[in-house]
Amino acid sequence: MTTLNITAADVNKLRQQTGAGMMDCKKALTEANGDFEAAIDFLRKKGQKVAANRSDRDAKEGYVIGKTTADGKLGAIVLLSCETDFVAKTDDFMNFANSILDLTLAQKPASVEDIKALTLNGLSVSDRLFDMIGKIGEKIEISRYEVIESPCVIVYNHPGNRLVSMVGFSSEAGAKVGKDVAMQIAAMAPIAVDKDDVDATTLAREIEIGKDQARQEGKPEEMLEKIALGKIGKFYKEYTLLNQSFIKEDSLTIRQLLEQTEKGLTVTSFKRVKLG
User: Fold this and answer.
1) Could you write out the DSSP letters of every residue in 68-135?
2) Which sign, positive or negative, has the C-alpha torsion 123, 129, 110, 170?
3) How many other C-beta atoms can be found within 10 angstroms of the C-beta atom of residue 159?
4) 79, 98, 128, 257: least surrounded by Cβ within 10 Å?
5) Class for domain 3-53, per CATH?
6) Cα Rg for the chain, rounded, in angstroms?
7) Candidates 3.50.50.60, 3.40.190.10, 3.30.565.10, 3.30.479.20; CATH matching 61-149
8) Reported confidence tier of residue 260, pLDDT bands at 50, 70, 90
9) Mean pLDDT throughout 246-259?
């Protein structure tokens, strides 16, 4: 096939296969002398070039989505990032994010890099990303991937898909209060499940902040440590999930809410992914 033999039907066929623009498809077929496979490779290479050219751009917009398996024992969250809110709201972009999420639930990859190596509709996810970049012309990347496996996993997708929370429970009874706890995580942004789960570096920083505050208040140097440790209790109540007051009934902590639901019920893990 020569350049003169490339018809509108050929261009449209390639466009249907790849989702690329009409002019890009025509150029690809011309460069490939009408060879469809070579034209697809040309478009993919164009996507890789676009990715390289836009590597310094900020992908601060995007689409966050979470879901569980049918049995509710495995949950995952995927954040697919792009440069503009306009692209993030397109059906193609949202469908792509959902297809990646479904793939993670089926294959249980361990990391973003593992996701990129998986096969999606005959091509690797990495190649699909390059295809999307070539088609849209923006930096697109899988920015976050979180997974929880537990006897009960609940996911809460906040309207607008800019925030998703996910929580795992020690028994299936978690389903009774799972949405409320997931919404608590979304609203109150805890940093750990319980006191013992707080990172040592974070704890040390809070103690130093407490000491500095007491010092500025004119407290004696020998009392600073004791005063700072006294403030840690408030920190735990504000930033550890089980010790937070339940937003729907502040006379209860989350720990008490779970204990009322089923004796011994607790949170095994949680994740909170927010765009931006």
Assistant:
1) E-TTSSEEEEEEEEES-HHHHTSHHHHHHHHHHHHHHHHH--SSHHHHHHSEETTEEHHHHHHHHHHH
2) negative
3) 6
4) 98
5) mainly alpha
6) 25
7) 3.30.479.20
8) very high
9) 97
